[in-house]
User: Fold Acetate kinase (AckA)-like protein from Rickettsia conorii.
Amino acid sequence: MIIDLFEDWWKKQQNLKLIATGRRIVHGEKIFNKLVIINEKVSEDLRPLIPLKVPCINLIICRYWLYFFKNIKKSHI
Assistant:
């Protein structure tokens, strides 16, 4: 499942911080209780990959999130 893949990947990125609208997003499992950061330009493309229970909010792009999805699409889909 995409969430599990993201969580596995995220655990390897512990030294990185996700920053959106000036706030740090909590890392680890809690990220899915917060926001899914997706740029408007890619949201249509990525939306089908994100489980419906995860909120999809168009905010400033989060390059780590986008990087993850770009690579997941190439390697898992």
